[in-house]
Write a structure and sequence with these properties.
Elements: E1 2-6, E2 19-22, E3 32-41, H1 44-52, E4 60-61, E5 66-73, E6 85-88, E7 101-105, E8 109-111, H2 118-121, H3 125-138, E9 150-154, H4 159-171, E10 175-179, H5 183-192, E11 196-198, H6 204-210, E12 217-220, H7 224-234, E13 240-243, E14 261-264, H8 269-273, H9 280-293, E15 301-307, H10 310-322, E16 328-332
């Protein structure tokens, strides 16, 4: 089968940064689905792995978002059957979705939204799982609650921020403050539903105080180390900070006097450690699918780069590395 991968970690500008090759069809584990990939998207994790993780055995295939059609099922599969249309974010410990066929545990797979194309659907899983787990599990906010409290989202125009704003506005009563720094990202964040937009290139402290708001919750999606002093100053006592990025150091002792809580959200944790509640990702993806089809959530896809190839994937990776992607970039299947 066709697949795209890399043999050496490094810069996307290298001629062989990504290459197309013939790979073996995956062997299925008992709970696995074999999915024909019809659409994928690119996330920051794709870039991080390709740049920093050297392949151990042969060419490494990455890719952590997909939508497609089930072609075969493992011996213990109970949730899907051949012909079902699905979408999912995969498992970082297994080969990725940049391939014609892909094996994935059914417990982290959802039913593809009927109202979206495969490529559009592929733009949702990783960011939706991340945003859902962040707001409803890490921050512990319950649906329908949050009235009188505010959520500050740092990095509102990216893939996760775009879904997080929507979940907060559609499923809770929180006031949402989101950051964006360019006219086009400000417009996008407003489209997603943010109540207030502030510029993360200027003083967060001054801007939030001008709003006369004191966030109880902060979702820091990038540059946490840069914004951490402002987060500590702005957040309410006994507030909660959740983050998804990788600060080299973070002195959370500065939050002790406010009795703050801190959480890291990492959507691969359930599949990586085969947790007892791994099926929650199947359940939440099905819920997201319903919310898309009933119009509660709108698409965050802003760019379809065409069919998967080494060249189109290089373009997607380069754009992701630029830090200027709004929403999500997607690609069609081979």
């Amino acid at each position: 089968m066709k697949a795209i991968g890399y043999n050496q970690a490094g810069q996307i500008t290298a001629p062989d940064a990504l290459l197309e090759f013939e790979a073996e069809t995956p062997e299925l584990q008992p709970r696995d689905l074999l999915v024909e990939i019809r659409g994928i998207s690119v996330n920051p994790v794709d870039v991080k792995v390709r740049s920093n993780v050297a392949p151990e055995n042969g060419t490494k295939v990455i890719g952590y978002d997909a939508a497609g059609v089930v072609q075969q099922v493992g011996s213990d599969v109970s949730k899907f059957q051949v012909g079902d249309e699905v979408f999912y974010a995969g498992d970082i410990t297994r080969p990725g979705t940049n391939s014609k066929l892909h094996a994935v545990d059914e417990r982290i797979v959802g039913k593809k939204p009927k109202s979206l194309t495969f490529a559009e659907a592929a733009g949702f899983p990783l960011t939706s799982i991340t945003a859902w787990e962040l707001i409803f599990e890490s921050l512990g906010i319950k649906e329908g609650e949050g009235k009188g409290d505010s959520l500050l989202i740092i990095g509102g125009a990216g893939g996760v921020g775009s879904i997080l704003i929507q979940l907060a506005k559609k499923l809770t009563k929180l006031t949402v403050i989101a950051t964006a720094s360019r006219p086009e990202t400000v417009e996008w964040v407003q489209k997603m539903g943010a109540d207030h937009v502030i510029n993360h290139r200027e003083s967060l402290i001054d801007q939030v105080k001008d709003l006369e708001l004191e966030p109880r919750y902060v979702a820091s999606l990038n540059a946490t180390d840069k914004h951490f002093p402002a987060i500590i100053e702005l957040i309410k006592p006994r507030g909660h900070v959740a983050l998804i990025d990788d600060p080299k150091t973070l002195d959370i002792m500065s939050g002790k006097s406010k009795a703050l809580s801190f959480s890291w959200e990492f959507m691969f944790a359930r599949s990586m450690y085969q947790t007892d509640d791994i099926e929650k990702q199947h359940q939440l993806l099905n819920r997201v699918s319903e919310l898309i089809d009933d119009g509660t959530l709108i698409s965050t896809v802003t760019n379809n780069l065409g069919k998967i190839s080494a060249e189109t994937l290089k373009t997607a990776h380069a754009q992701q590395e630029s830090g200027r992607v709004i929403g999500k970039n997607v690609l069609e299947g081979f």
